[in-house]
Specification:
The complex is a heterodimer of chains A (383) and B (77).
Chain A: E1 8-9, H1 21-33, H2 44-64, E2 72-75, H3 78-89, E3 95-99, H4 104-115, E4 120-124, H5 130-140, E5 145-151, H6 163-173, E6 176-180, E7 199-203, E8 215-219, H7 259-275, H8 277-296, E9 301-303, E10 311-316, H9 321-330, E11 333-334, E12 336-338, H10 343-349, E13 356-360, H11 367-381
Parallel strand pairs in A: 1-11, 3-4, 3-5, 5-6, 6-7
Antiparallel strand pairs in A: 2-8, 7-8, 9-10, 10-13, 12-13
Helix pairs in contact in A: 1-7, 2-7, 3-4, 8-11
Chain B: E1 2-6, H1 9-20, E2 27-30, E3 42-46, H2 51-60, E4 68-69
The chains are: A alpha/beta (383), B alpha+beta (77).
């Protein structure tokens, strides 16, 4: 899928592009017809906006296996969702478990709490067989381990953690499980109830094909129900009280929500449902295999992960990732180089020295797009 | 008309959807802050004759609600 001026976009793990026409229409319609402030008053336009928001809660709850719309809490993005989820439940003296492939959106909040001396944390290996990963987790659990916060799928590799098995283990041990679904939402089936996920944190603008500006916590339990708030302010209810309301989701949604982005997210989820997660994933894997096979045959190209999926990390010997990315950009191809805000993952994969170049696929790519990308990588590698 | 107070706009919309799915039309309204100790809040307005039936339907679907304000119009602030 190219832009009007021929740019080929392969950075869908950062944000999907292009957006489905249905999403663009939903955002535009919302801005034209539902432009009130949701939950602020009961005039027609405020109620239309509130109903847009509620419709998305229902759509997301159904999509991710939550039983009620109130279990969907809107946030600015996944980072906000992860911070809120963690800090709402963590208490002084708690021990936290994170995986070895985490994004900084997980590492930094945990590290910040640890630097204050309020919590401690350990890292389990997120690589290996399911049995090895689970064994590693069991070995790291302490008597005061209260929370596990981990990525379902990392942002530079495609190996999914066995979240259902981890969820069962956490439930048995009384550990709150917070899952970073930034790279798995819309790519893999997720059911917070069946997988024993207490809080699933997801973006609207990646695999769910919404626009930037909103993320979500989808609650699979009542872990967050009476938790600590991250920000406080107007909620549209109980305005004579100094404290935030107790009720979900308003307790954690101080300030005005981005109604157009949320309307777009509803349409994005419907798009993914119509396409089918399995179908979208299979297509991404097919494109991945095509590129992986061709890059494997190039002598100066280094690859890091052999699991098919939506992202492919590579390097070209003797050329920095930034230079490769720049050269591709000059040829009209957008990829992302560097550490991808995930130094832990790069360290685990062995690419920490220079980072890497990440290609990430989306719903609108064709095999021809991949062939053009492959040809340009080849042209750069042979220079 | 009667008003049943709701915890939030989210709960009010959920109640409205549940009831409309059963053929009962209600209107979401703001509650006159003078009638509540906690400030702004929402409710659903309907014919008082339907109050027991509505509460039963909401109970059956697990939709929590507050108090029933009978008669009068509390909609506008």
């Amino acid at each position: 899928m190219k832009t009007a001026d021929g740019i080929l976009y392969f950075d869908n793990a950062a944000t999907t592009y292009p957006k489905p026409e249905s999403v663009i229409r939903a955002v535009t319609y919302c801005m034209r017809e539902s432009g009130g402030n949701p939950g602020r008053g009961s005039h027609t336009m405020a109620l239309r906006a509130a109903e847009e928001i509620y419709a998305c809660r229902e759509e997301a709850a159904s999509f991710f296996g939550a039983s009620e719309a109130e279990q969907v809490i809107f946030t600015m993005n996944t980072t906000h969702a992860l911070n809120l989820a963690l800090k709402s439940v963590i208490r002084p003296g708690d021990h936290v478990l994170i995986g070895s492939m985490e994004h900084n959106a997980v590492l930094r909040p945990v590290s910040a709490l640890a630097s204050l001396g309020t919590v401690s944390y350990s890292v389990f290996s997120a690589r290996g067989t399911d049995a090895q990963i689970l064994s590693g987790i069991r070995a790291k659990i302490r008597s005061n381990t209260r929370v596990m916060i981990t990525a379902h799928v990392p942002n530079i590799a495609n190996t999914a953690l066995p979240i259902d098995k981890i969820g069962s283990l956490c439930r048995q041990r009384g550990i709150t499980l917070i899952v970073d679904g930034a790279q798995s939402a819309g790519h893999l089936p997720i059911d917070v109830g069946r997988m024993n996920i207490d809080m699933l944190c997801v973006p609207g603008h990646k695999g769910l094909y919404g626009v930037q500006g909103c993320g979500m916590i989808v609650c699979g339990s009542e872990a967050i129900t009476h938790g600590r708030t991250l920000i406080e302010g107007g909620s549209g209810v109980h305005s004579l009280e100094a404290g935030m309301p107790d009720e979900l989701p308003e307790r954690y949604e101080a300030g005005t929500l981005p109604t157009p982005a949320i309307a777009g997210l509803s349409a994005g989820i419907r798009f993914v449902k119509q396409q089918g997660i399995a179908s979208l994933h299979r297509r991404e894997c097919d494109l991945w295999r095509r590129l992986y096979t061709d890059l494997s045959a190039m002598p100066h190209v280094r690859l890091y992960d052999s699991t098919p999926g939506s992202v492919l990390l590579f390097n070209i010997d003797g050329i920095s990732p930034a230079e490769v990315s720049e050269k591709l950009n000059q040829r009209g191809i957008c990829v992302r180089s560097g550490y991808h805000c995930a130094p832990m993952a790069h360290k685990t994969l062995g690419s920490i020295d220079n980072g890497g170049v990440r290609v990430s696929f989306g719903a609108f790519h064709t095999e021809r797009d991949v062939c053009r990308l492959r040809d340009e990588i080849w042209n750069i590698a042979r220079q | 008309m009667c008003i049943l107070t709701m915890k939030s706009i989210t709960h009010a919309i959920r109640a409205k959807n549940v009831l409309e799915g059963r053929g009962i039309s209600v209107t979401i309204v703001s509650i006159d802050p003078r009638l509540t100790a906690r400030g702004c809040s929402y409710g659903i307005r309907f014919a008082c004759a339907d109050a027991d039936r509505i509460k039963g339907m909401l109970d059956a679907k697990g939709v929590s609600y507050g108090v029933l304000l009978g008669g009068g119009d509390h909609e506008n602030r």
